[in-house]
Amino acid sequence: MEPRSEVANGGEDADTIALASSNSSFRLEATRMELPLLRFWLLSIGLLTGLLLSLLDTSIVATSLFTIGSEFNALTSVNWVALAYTLTYLGCAVLSARISDIIGRRNAFIAFYIMFLIFSIACGFAQSLAQLIACRAVQGIGGSGLYSIAMIVLLEVAPERLHKVVGGIIAIVITIASILGPVLGGTLTRYTTWRWIFWINGPIGVVSVTIFFFTWPRSEYLPDIRRKSWKELDYFGSILLIVASTMVVFPFQIAGELMDQWSKAIFIAPLAIGVVSWFALIFWSILVDICWGDMMDAAIPMRLLRDRVYVSVLLNTLFLGFPYMLVVYAFPLRLQIVNGKDALTGGIMLLPMLGSSAVGTAITGALNSKQNRVFESLLVATISVALGCGLMSTLSASFEVEPKALGFLVFIGFGWGIAVSIASMVATIHSTHEDHAPAQGMMAQVRVLGGSIGIAASSAILGVFLQERVGSAQPRQVLPPQDDGASSTEGQYMAVRQAYSDAFNKDMQVCAIIGGIAVLLVTGTYSRKRLTLAERQTNSKIERRKAARSSQRLVDETSV
């Protein structure tokens, strides 16, 4: 048993927690000291900057792949620059959260940050495509840690009155990164060199991690969480989770790049491995829970999977990640090809989605500050996303941008802002102190998983339409984005425009269907008798204090 002083975050000075119950109301009489607001916001700058950089690198290369592929004379393989980062970023979210339970939140965040920065700079100095892909894979592991740990720490250190705000801030950062990534990548590539896409992380990251290090609070401002040991880590379950996540995305990405692969081993084999790995992971988690629950922390704790509300929100997050990330990637590309806009304009036209996302997060915090309206909030969010996607499928192939498209984006952004806020809130209040890190990590991982599947599915759909209309699954061979059709005939140009327009509309139809399924999943969060969020937070704190006292008693007994 680890000593009580060895905690994942630090000690806690609160001595007494009592629960007074009257008409279903609860009162917390003493808690840990609250972090001063100034120090919290400074710490948040360090955390949110790391979160932003990790998210930016999922999409910043999107508008630069043609330039990178041309320099290395490897256009057919250049998509691996994006895919390598995405797969490791996706696969390691829960594992990195678990590692933070072992070495501590601060140490883990700094370690993953350093890994991210070193390999970002290495990407900029790559002399071959193989070197670049390898560095991007390791960079993705670092980015995964920044992503999941930042969300965990923000909710753990935030003063209680700001808990309802934190989820909204995270949603806004995710949206900003999604919009800014392709724009920043295109701008840097156009006016400097593609290598600055990776080098820019260096100076920004050094400042960010320095702020984080010097504003990290003392132990009395942190929740009392027992630090785990390496022998408690579920190594086999973590490997299964990584394989399951990556192998489901990989075949769809390949199918989008190379046509006529749907019935071949390159598609079927990894997909089968992914599906089998998911079933094996669930079986293994049940086995760990039954046989070794006191000695090992399962990669996916069964305690979380027994919580109906948490599982419903988890699945809803998975399904909403699909349409949101697909829109973020596909809509700017449609603007460039169908409407003749540049990458910068394409990013700017996503701003209505960013603004409505901020509004959604603000409304969520206000609605749930005193009453538990998780079901109603998530229902509105999911319907809004599904409706927005359905309306987007009605866009025509006209050269001029239809103003209604920007209005449809408002629906998607509004729903997304609410959904991310609710997911962060539920992961916090529906998990015990021991499961807080994996609860947030799983939410983060399924969000990326859904988005990755959405992007891969969009690539596959686009490939089908290009094959039918143009006879090529490689659009760059016909219409390089930066040439605006200069290298193709007028007929080819019009065929590619129509293919992109039709593929996008099909994407949106698929997204509307996925959104409809997500609406059904929201019903799992409904309950007649609901504790308010404040009551759930109080129960969580009491449970954490009891566990800490139990741990202390065991330490005292073993030391006698």
Per CATH, what is the topology of the largest domain? Growth Hormone, Chain: A
Overall radius of gyration: 24 Å
The CATH superfamily of the largest domain bears the name: MFS general substrate transporter like domains
Structural classification: mainly alpha
Number of helices: 20
Mean model confidence by pLDDT: 79
- What would the principal axes of the Cα set say about the shape? globular
Number of domains: 3
Stretches with pLDDT under 50, minimum 5 residues: 1-8, 10-30, 475-486, 554-560
Question: Explain this structure to me?
Answer:
With 560 residues, the protein is mainly alpha-helical. It has 3 domains: 31-216, Up-down Bundle (Growth Hormone, Chain: A); 235-298; 307-528, Growth Hormone, Chain: A (Up-down Bundle), CATH 1.20.1250.20. Helices cover 71% and strands 0% of the residues. The model is unreliable at 1-8, 10-30, 475-486 and 554-560 (pLDDT under 50).
Layout of secondary structure:
Elements: H1 37-59, H2 65-71, H3 80-91, H4 93-103, H5 105-124, H6 129-157, H7 163-191, H8 196-199, H9 201-215, H10 235-257, H11 265-291, H12 302-305, H13 308-337, H14 343-348, H15 351-367, H16 374-392, H17 403-429, H18 436-469, H19 490-522, H20 533-559
Helix pairs in contact: 1-6, 1-7, 1-9, 3-6, 3-10, 3-18, 4-5, 4-6, 4-18, 5-6, 5-9, 6-18, 7-15, 7-17, 10-11, 10-18, 13-16, 13-17, 13-18, 13-19, 15-17, 16-17, 16-19, 17-18, 18-19
